[in-house]
Amino acid sequence: MKNLFLYLIGLMFLSCSSVPEYSLTANFDGLDKGKAYLNNRVGGEWQVVDSVDVTEGTFMFTGTVDIPDYFYITLEGKRGRFPIFIENSDITVTGHADTLYKAKITGSSVQDEYNAYSEELNKYWEKYGEIRMKWIELKKAGDEAKASELEAELDKIYKDAQQFGKDYVTEHPVSYISPYVFRSVSYGLSGAEIETELEKLDAVLNKSGFVVELAERAEILKKVAIGEKFLDFTQNDPDGNPVRLSSLVGENCLLIDFWAAWCGPCRAENPNVVAVYNDYKDKGFDVLGVSLDRNKEDWLKAIEDDKLTWTQVSDLNYWKNEASKAYGINAIPSNLLLDKDGIIIEKNIRGKELRTKISELLD
Predict the structure, then answer these.
(1) Are residues 130 and 212 in the same domain?
(2) Residue 346 has pLDDT above 90, yes or no
(3) How far apart are CA 199 and CA 113, in angstroms?
(4) pTM attached to this predicted model
(5) Which residue from 95, 104, 179, 357 lies 20 to 30 Å from 27 (Cα-Cα)?
(6) Looking at the domain assignment, is residue 3 inside a domain?
(7) Measured distance CA(104)–CA(328) in Å, rounded
(8) Any domain includes 274
(9) What share of the chain is helix, strand, coil (3-state, %, to 5)?
(10) Which tens digits make up the pLDDT trace of 192-248?
């Protein structure tokens, strides 16, 4: 009886000590000492999960994950973040500290699946890059007709790449990389559309950081969907005067334009917004620019250089801009069009679409 009791105690100890863990051993050339950090993102914020000392280029992270998920390795004094899927297994990473993106990973079946997916996806982007180089050459040569043809090709490749990702998620609802893939193709989807797609994923993925992030984003986007009333906010203009959004709502159709001086596509779109504004400002059209800048001088210079004469505001908090967070903005340029009652009637209309819509409303 005593021997049986000791045997059972031994089994209990064994079961308690055999909790699944990951062991991530890394060796990077070009790195003698310092700190290595394991990071993830929660709610758009970077968090340090673990940190260890580096000895002669070698370090190790150990721990437990509920499900395989996406993390980043950063090295003290080195640029860049190295993404990696971590699961409870023995994982090895080797590479050079100055080229983190080239590091090799072994021991993670989820990472292997991700690599296979990326290899297929990269075929689209390689083709996209080749055609884009030709497009740049044609633009420089002033051949707008042929450049326009290539633009159509580029648009198709982009849409095909997006569809490849969406199809992958549909076909792999239990895959641990599907939440990551879905997030990468979710830009532009409404809150309701995101929720619908998340419901197709297996419940085992609910603990994924990407699923949690997307579910939170869906809730935000539903509050600012087309047909909903605007969410009020107050930010300062370039002179430091507070401007309340609601003070601009009521008399005109109002375009809330999220942009930044550092954003190339935003600066390229600005002349179009300027032209529409100048043509319709006396007919009932207004614009409120919300800048995601963090350098006030750059912001002011861009306003002057691009001749943006409408009201401009910013809290100079970059991607943490409170207004952009409230409206679920995760890419710029982005905009929302409000009618005179403050109802959101369009989103992300640019180029010819903007002029066409304003013409329909005010001509």
Answers:
(1) yes
(2) yes
(3) 22
(4) 0.80
(5) 179
(6) no
(7) 35
(8) yes
(9) 45, 25, 30
(10) 999 999 999 999 999 898 999 899 999 999 999 999 999 999 999 999 999 999 999
